[in-house]
Amino acid sequence: MTTSDAVRAATRCPTVLVVDDDPDQLGLITTFLNREGCTVIAAASGEHALSLLSDVPVDLIIVDLLLPGVDGWQLAVELRKRLPGCPVAISSVLDVEDYPSAEELLPKPVTRAQIAALLSRRIPDRACP
After folding, report:
1. Low-confidence residues in the chain, pLDDT < 70
2. Is position 4 within any domain?
3. SS3 42
4. Is residue 6 assigned to a domain?
5. CA dihedral defined by 56, 18, 127, 5, rounded to 10 degrees?
6. d(CA 71, CA 60)
7. Which of 6, 67, 83, 123 has the smallest C-beta neighbourhood within 10 Å, fewest atoms?
8. CA separation, residue 25 to residues 8, 11, 16, 114 (Å)
9. What is the CATH number of the domain that holds 113?
């Protein structure tokens, strides 16, 4: 982490991009992240997620694998190209063995405890509770 990254992380709540086409899952993960003090950018498709990347700096990305159009496997590859160094967590109902390479694995159903642990590992010095 560079000095500017550390200052940014210490002066604002972390921003998490969540990509899931299931409105219930997207809402649940968003609620958990909001309760942990995060700002959430929600996208229901890979294409929508990619269109949002230039608007806001992102500290963490959570990607569902089973997306229409650009699926989670393709999206994870593209996100790594566009945001090198930003951790990607894969969330899916599929077996963990089927997940692509990622910094974090977040099997569904996702719990608030899993989200809190993920944030503690990936953004330990976040400014918000």
Report:
1. 1-12, 127-129
2. no
3. strand
4. no
5. -50
6. 18
7. 6
8. 29, 29, 15, 14
9. 3.40.50.2300
